[in-house]
Amino acid sequence: MAVRPNEPESRLRRFLSKDFTPYLVFSVPLIFMVIFLFWPLVTTFIRAFLPAGRHFTFGPFSLNNFERFATSNLYRMSLRNSFIVSFAVVFCTMLIGVPMGYFVARVKMPFKNLILSLGILPVILPSFVGAFSWILLLGRQGLVRQWINAFLGLFGLELPSIYGLFGVIFVMTVTYYPFVFLLAYGAFEAANPLLEEAAMIMGARRSRILRTVTLPLVLPSLGAGAILVFIRAMGNFGIPAILGGEEYVLPTLIYFRVNGFYDLNGAAAISLVSVAITGGALLLQKFVISKREYETIGASRSQFAQHTHPAIRIIATVFCLLVLLISLAPQITMVVMSFFTRWGRTGPEGFTWANYARIPEIAGKPILNSLYLSTTASLLCAVLGCLVAYITERRKPRGALILDLAIMAPFILPGTVVSVAVISAFGSGSIFALGGTYTIILISYMIRRTPYVFRSAVASLSQLDPTLEEASMIAGANWLYTFRRVSLPLILPGIISGTILTFATLLQELSTTILLYSARTRTLPILIWGAVADGKFGEASALSTLLITMVFIVVYVMNRFLGKSITSSFKVG
Amino acid sequence: MSSRIRYKEVEKIFPGDPPVHALKKVSFTIEPGELFCLLGPSGCGKTTLLRCTAGLETLSSGSIFYNDQDVTSIPPFRRNIGMVFQSYALYPHLNVFENVAYGLRVRKVDQATVKRKVEEIMELVGLPDVLKRNPSPTALSGGQQQRVAVARALVYDPQILLLDEPLANLDAKLRRHMRAEIRRIQKVTNITTIFVTHDQEEAMAIGDRLAIMRDGIIEQIGSSDEIYHNPANAFVSNFIGKMNFFPGRIVSMDGDHYQIQLDSAGYDLRFTPKVASDAQGAKAGDRITVGFRPEHLQIAPSPTEGQVRGRVRIIQHLGQVVRYEVALEQGGTERAIEVDMRRLVPGVLEGDEIAVQFPQDVGFLFAEGGEE
Fold this sequence. Notes:
The structure holds two protein chains of two kinds. The termini of chain A are far apart. A two-stranded antiparallel ribbon of chain A has the order 1-2. In chain A, β1 (340-344) and β2 (347-351) form a beta hairpin. In chain A, α2 (21-47) packs across α17 (359-395). Chain A is mainly α. Chain A contains 26 helices and two strands. By secondary structure, chain B is α+β, with helices and mostly antiparallel strands. Chain B has nine helices and 21 strands. Chain B has helices at 46-54, 96-106, 111-124, 130-133, 142-154, 172-189, 200-206, 224-229, 234-239; strands spanning 5-14, 20-30, 35-39, 61-66, 69-70, 81-84, 160-164, 192-197, 209-214, 217-222, 244-254, 257-262, 268-271, 274-275, 287-292, 298-301, 308-317, 322-330, 333-341, 353-357, 364-367. Chain B is elongated and about 80 Å long.
């Protein structure tokens, strides 16, 4: 039987016999991304070139908003401070995180598991809560400040004020060092010991091996850690808002423009500058690191011989425990403070339950808001992230790279920038006016957090052998059946852990919510921030303790449920 | 029910830079109930052809027929075929029973029938006991996983069974056992089966017929015996068993009898070779390639004038034969050939100079330059 495959009839048959379910399913996230991601980003970009104010037009365009970086002292200072803070924080976290990672990976010492599981806490817990605890410890009246000054006084020195750049850099460092620590630990742990043993056999000393073999091999991981810290330091709003005082940085400047002047177009320009800097740092990191990525050759693995010299063991143990103590001090302080009325010269004063007793009255609605917003947004993130991951990873359409970049872009966007973008597109006066609603907060949460679920879904999918899905097709299952019965069950653990971590981070979200909330949609972090601003430290502590407990329970339950360690769930980044 | 599979000018080009032309106008037919082997070096297109047969890859042009039905544009899940993957692709989240039952569940078969069919097929593949514990497939040994994968592919009575290097992940002894098992199961079920492998011994042992592929082209199709004894060209002859090649020129020919001037010898070879299809039209004066299998050649100590000289590089005792790797000097460059002797040749050590002797009644004649 002769069949010409290009007859129109057979071409139509070929078209109709295709399985169209995937295309229908895939169009949903794509439409969502166009409306809720591309459009806000595009309007933000356009606004940056419009005259100051909140009006959105299509011209005339000018660079007035950017000129202020040259003319305004406040703008210049913010830009300079953002640079100083970000680079200083990266440097300091390296200084702490790299040795700590090396110690835990390579030195025989006690408390390793404790250090690894507690080490992650500063990242999980809300950073602005840490900031205000440090005021208690290192503020003008602070207990710890007095101890340190007593010591520094011997050399005629004094600790700088916690308000200002020193405080911001210090608190960010103790908050973000875990990224460097955990990535460094992972790299030191995973490197092939035979490479170092080979160097030793060839006669190299330990210090030479460290310099010529070990460090070059872990450099890509350190670069990844550095960029994670840089992005966060650049975008953090809570810490400079609480500790910055007169010293503005870009996120607080954006907040100031929007809340003080309702100058959305000006804020958009600042956002653009902030994103450009982060993008530049990302490129720099890629440029420096990408030349130095090494494939590990050979498959055999063995354990590292650990350092056992008593001096090294003591130094390592003391160093790690000290870092841990410092980084957890604010959380401990806060829990203690929540049971007292004041924090005096010698410590907490006036034991009371009142701070907790007031919670139902003042925080009932915000707690419900936080739970509702975080739960809904994480579930939406899960669906979106999972579908887009499936499209880019399995279908590999022509625009896969653009899709990947688009969904990952918010990863480097500071929270304040996302809220500027969302207000630009959906604020009062736009076609879909969503200002002050739950929806606008949900949208911004989704934009910010989908990359996290997306990444863990991509990681799970890339480990899922495609032949498992092919085998299902061969056995007669169509795309939807295969997805439900094979792909989804196998990537579900990764997606669940990604979703729950998203939930935990959204519970404490401040920098986006701060520009989007209304009286009706206030969340728990907003309430805490307000209490700190009003100087109600007792109340703020009780609320923070509640928040931290909620976050902790979520992460703990997840780890019990999935049988994973807390640290491993943060490796994705 | 088993099907005939017919390929009509099947082409597959993978886009890219540069594009990969994986299949070049492949046309042939596999008969119903046949166990057919696709054999070739890695990258020859054999797995691509298998995946096209399954519908996992779309053709660039051409058609594939199951019996008289054009399946070219039919997605794999509507084709009713079974496939065993190199990695087995067993589902770690399902137990063995559910793995095997998967295709039946897809077809919405009732529970009683599912149970009966799974038990029957597990009996056939020789794993009836595994169902009692019914563990996750990850708890099984490699050989057991292999059988489960075969059971899963056969349980819903597919019209075609496709096997993609199914034995590659097993150790040598188990592999020999399993290839006999697969042939047994295939003969019991009588399903048209395509078996992809790069192992010529495996292909010759298991296949009713085999196709030798290279660079997206089928070089020869035939039974193991035909291909071994009548290879179509030098490439096939050296892929199915070892062949030593000697370039030369036809001096004269008289019926089956050829007189050949070898580049490496000081005298003319007179013999009666099998003439491969690519050398059929050769005439006196043409350059050709002479081929001898290692067992056709002989070595003798202390060469005399006019014999082909060589130097013994390595002597390997392989049990049934002793293999001499001999370096031939030829125009300033060295070439290695292999000579298999029944036993050690007395007085010949590694490094010694020897003479290579050619037979007169066996040997092959190929077109020039086809041996790469």
